[in-house]
Every structure is written in C-alpha cells, then in structure tokens.
C-alpha cells in the first residue's frame, strides 16, 4: 500500500510505502480494546480518599451515659451514623493502571492504524516547517491541506515552532512517531504524519 505525500500547500510530492503489514479482518480488535482500556485507566488519578472512624478527629469520650437518658446508646462521636463521623468502606488512594504487554500494544497500534488507512483518514506531509510560532500560519497550513475537525499531527519532538503554533488550537493534538499510541490514533478525525515520523512509526510496527 502506498500513500501520497503532500507539501504544506497541499501539492503532491511523491509517494511513501506502508512498510508494516496491515491487520485484516477481526484480528487485533481485542488488543485495541485492552490497550485503550489500559490507557484510559492509567489517566485516572486514584487520589480519592475518605477518613474512617480511626482517622476522624474527635475524642474518645462517650457522648452520654449508657443508661437513664432515654436516648439510644452511643459510644463514639466518630460513629459512621453521625454527621462528621467516619466513612465505612469509602474510597482509598489506589493505582488504576493495568498491565499490557508490548506485543499487544504493537498489534493494537497496527490494527488502529490499518483501519484509519483503509478509511482514508491518514495523510503524509513531506515536512512542516513554520517560519514563526504564529497560530495564524499554522491554521493556514491546515486549510491548505483541507483538514477539518480534530486532527492528530505526528511530527518532530524538537520542533518548538510547531508546538508554539499549535498549542492554542484545541482541536489539534501534537505528538511524535516514538510516542504516538492507539488511543490518539483513534480519537482524531484526521491523522497527519510527516514523512520522517511515518517511517519512525513503521519501524516500531514491523514485526520482530
């Protein structure tokens, strides 16, 4: 499979070959589900915390004597039945992350990228070299490439001008060929690669 390479004005600049094998049929669907679930779980902070009876500030004094008052017996101001008391079985700090092995992640990324390639949602650009870090210039490039809706741009890690120009555009996410993951590939309407970033990703996806 080959993809047309365009420049920043949207003109054709040749072709690039997809070097990694595409995933056909239903293979890899479960890997995608597991990988995305693990990614989303890892984003959870897991910092929710409540105080139990032993942690609530208070005294060990009995609220009132056991008998003779006409009220129900009570032994602690920190009782879960009382306002301001401890919480029974409340949330505690925890780690929500799930383990996903390397082969599963690679299969999931290949599957996700294969589906986006078949749908025509992947575009390869020769390079994105901005004269300045102006958002206006960056938006002009998107218009020339006819990119509408959300977009994932996979480029160079050290391209500071591109990062400055794209950070104010909420519908655009920027990453690199070394860091792009399955969740990012699936979330955007369009996926834009620079030629070098696409080749870097292809090396990651070639089966060992």
Question: What can be said about this structure in brief?
Answer:
With 208 residues, the protein is α/β, with parallel strands linked by helices. The protein has helices at residues 29-42, 102-118, 135-144, 160-166, 182-187, 195-205, and strands at 2-6, 12-17, 122-125, 151-155, 172-176, 190-194.
Topology diagram in text:
Elements: E1 2-6, E2 12-17, H1 29-42, H2 102-118, E3 122-125, H3 135-144, E4 151-155, H4 160-166, E5 172-176, H5 182-187, E6 190-194, H6 195-205
Helix pairs in contact: 1-2, 3-4
- Overall structural class, as computed from helix and strand content, comes to alpha/beta
Q: What would the principal axes of the Cα set say about the shape?
A: elongated
Look at the structure and name the CATH superfamily of the largest domain: Ribosomal protein L4/L1
- Got a strand count? 6
Mean pLDDT: 91
Beta content comes to 5-15%
Multimeric state of these chains?
A: single chain
For the CA atoms, what is the radius of gyration? 27 Å
Describe the main β-sheet briefly: 6 strands, mixed
How would you explain this protein's 3D organization?
The protein is α/β, with parallel strands linked by helices. It folds into 2 domains: 2-44 and 99-205, Ribosomal Protein L4, Chain: A (3-Layer(aba) Sandwich); 46-95, no CATH class. The chain has 6 helices and 6 strands. It has helices at residues 29-42, 102-118, 135-144, 160-166, 182-187, 195-205, and strands at residues 2-6, 12-17, 122-125, 151-155, 172-176, 190-194. The protein has a 6-stranded mixed beta sheet with strand order 2-1-3-6-4-5. The radius of gyration is 27 Å and the shape is elongated.
């Amino acid at each position: 499979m080959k993809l047309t390479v365009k420049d920043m004005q949207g003109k054709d600049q040749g072709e690039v070959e997809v070097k990694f094998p595409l995933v056909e049929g239903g293979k890899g669907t479960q890997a995608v589900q597991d990988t995305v679930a693990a990614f989303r779980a890892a984003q959870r902070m897991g910092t929710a915390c409540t105080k139990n009876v032993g942690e609530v500030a208070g005294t060990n004094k009995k609220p009132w004597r056991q008998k003779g008052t006409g009220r129900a017996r009570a032994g602690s101001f920190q009782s879960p039945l009382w306002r301001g008391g401890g919480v029974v079985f409340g949330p505690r700090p925890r780690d929500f992350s799930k383990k996903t092995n390397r082969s599963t992640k690679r299969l999931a990324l290949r599957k996700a990228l294969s589906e986006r390639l078949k749908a025509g949602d992947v575009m390869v650009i020769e390079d994105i070299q901005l004269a300045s870090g102006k958002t206006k210039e960056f938006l002009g490039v998107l218009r020339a490439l006819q990119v509408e809706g959300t977009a994932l741009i996979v480029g160079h890690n050290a391209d500071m001008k591109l990062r400055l120009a794209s950070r104010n555009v909420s519908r655009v996410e920027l990453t690199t060929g070394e860091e792009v993951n399955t969740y990012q590939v699936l979330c955007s309407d369009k996926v834009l690669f620079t030629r070098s970033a696409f080749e870097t990703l292809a090396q990651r996806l070639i089966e060992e």
